[in-house]
Design a protein that fits this description.
The chain is an alpha/beta fold and 286 residues long. Helices cover 42% and strands 14% of the residues. The strands form 2 sheets. Strands 3-4-5-6-7-8-9-10 form an 8-stranded parallel beta barrel, surrounded by 5 helices. A two-stranded antiparallel sheet has the order 1-2. The mean pLDDT is 96.
Length: 286
């Protein structure tokens, strides 16, 4: 495993296991399988509705809690100082831990400032080891970093070969914020796993396209979250620390960048409307 050190000195595994869209009834076993495969970094969220299953697996696996790095994210409907604090305590109960390694604000909407103050207080109280944001574009990251006491340690954003976040990462480096990738495989959109450039590089190394993508992210110093419900794929995804991409191969992948999200643009009013609807759809589940 490779690691990064956040601006506050916290050590974070560069490769993690994400549980987005893993059903509650499957999640505990998937996390146990991932632990068996070697993962120690797990990323969940209040809006994934599987924090409890992640906590169950980690508590049952027999490995000390301090060997794991656990991330959760505060859902938009829990924003605001008081609601955020309360929701994080509930997340701790579900995750069966007194301290969460990283807590992020999941989306750049609603009362981000009130919520961020709650993160700062819990961080200073030792209940959170690192704090940050998710899906914050460069201007919003600059804003929240400039006008709060503690700069975000992490910004988790969509990062993959077709949306490489080059300028966004430069902005994060400038502010000492660690970039973390969700959807490193773009959920297979745009035939990513069949991309001829990625496929040729994979064949050269005797690796899969997924392994090449993760290796590319590691060499860009991007923390990545891989996800699978199949243990053999979990093992394959973590088997990326025995090869290096050449400078030429890194340049070829750089040329794939479209600079466009494969999902949605957080800076459009339509995206805000989409999340408002999502809040209403999920309100009774949180």
């Amino acid at each position: 495993m490779e690691y990064v050190y956040l601006s506050n000195g916290v050590k974070m595994p560069k490769l993690g296991f994400g549980v987005f869209q893993i059903a509650k009834e499957d999640c505990e076993q998937c996390v146990l399988d991932a632990i068996q495969a070697g993962y120690r970094h797990f990323d969940t969220a209040q809006s994934y509705f599987n924090e409890e299953e992640v906590g169950n697996a980690i508590s049952k696996c027999g490995i000390p809690r301090n060997e794991f790095f656990i991330t959760t994210k505060v859902w938009i409907d829990n924003y605001g100082y008081d609601k955020t604090k309360h929701s994080i305590y509930l997340s701790m109960e579900k995750l069966k831990t007194d301290v969460i390694d990283l807590v992020l604000l999941h989306q750049p909407f609603n009362d981000t400032y009130g919520s961020y103050r709650a993160l700062e207080e819990l961080y200073e109280a030792g209940r959170i080891r690192a704090i940050g944001v998710s899906n914050f574009p460069p201007d919003r990251l600059a804003d929240i970093a400039a006008f709060n006491r503690i700069q975000p340690h992490v910004n988790q954003v969509e990062t993959n070969p077709l949306n490489q976040q080059i300028k966004a990462q430069m902005n994060m480096v400038k502010r000492d914020v660690q970039i973390e990738a969700w959807a490193p495989f773009g959920e297979g959109k745009s035939n990513m796993f069949a991309n001829p450039v990625l496929k040729a590089i994979a064949d050269t190394h005797g690796k899969s396209v997924a392994q090449v993508i993760l290796r590319w992210l590691m060499q860009r110093n991007v923390v990545a979250l891989a996800k699978s419900i199949h243990i053999e794929r979990m093992k394959e995804n973590i088997d990326i620390f025995d090869f290096q991409l050449s400078e030429e191969e890194m340049c070829k992948i750089a040329q794939l960048d479209t600079g466009t999200s494969l999902f949605f643009d957080h800076q459009t009013p339509e995206t805000v409307d989409m999340f408002v609807k999502m809040i209403q759809d999920r309100k009774n589940k949180i």
